[in-house]
Amino acid sequence: MYLLITIFYLSFAGMATMVLLKRREILSGQGIAASGIGQKIDRSFQAVWSAFGHFVAGFNRRNLIAVVQLVAYHILLRVRRVYVELKHRTLMNPHGRKVIDAVRGRGEIRNHGASFYLRRIGDK
Questions:
Q1: The pTM is what?
Q2: Count of H-run helices and E-run strands, the chain
Q3: For the chain, first and last CA: distance in Å?
């Protein structure tokens, strides 16, 4: 609780200092050192933003589709690796192999609990 109050008062003091420095800068007409640094940073951010705008402007429908396909390929490649590893681990377990066979329709069919249709396809 005291930490939050301290942070609040420090922030308030910082804002008040910024307002007073800006007032002094406007009245005297001369910038302070922090303003010069801020202007340099503004120019660099503007250059980065402009370069990003030129990069985005180069995209059209075909380029965007190609990028989306590339990203989807790399995501699906990694998902497939995880799937193959899980399948391998499941097949190494006898109970897991039995479950996978049942899902694929290769499970054992018993006459006493199966429906007429399952008994008929089990005889084939």
A1: 0.39
A2: 5, 0
A3: 76
Torsion of CA 109, 112, 116, 121, to 10 degrees: 20
Instruction: Check residues 41 and 32 and name the one with the higher pLDDT.
Output: 41
Q: How far apart are CA 62 and CA 64, in angstroms?
A: 5
pLDDT digits (tens, 9 = 90+) for 79-108: 999 999 988 888 888 888 778 777 777 666
Would you give the DSSP letter of residue 107?
A: S
Length of the chain in residues, anyone? 124
User: Do 123 and 117 form a contact (C-beta atoms < 8 A)?
Assistant: no
List all residues 6 or more positions away from 114 whose beta carbon is below 8 Å from its beta carbon.
122
> In terms of Cα–Cα distance, which of 4, 26, 8 is closest to 16?
8
CA dihedral 87, 90, 94, 97 (to 10 degrees): -40
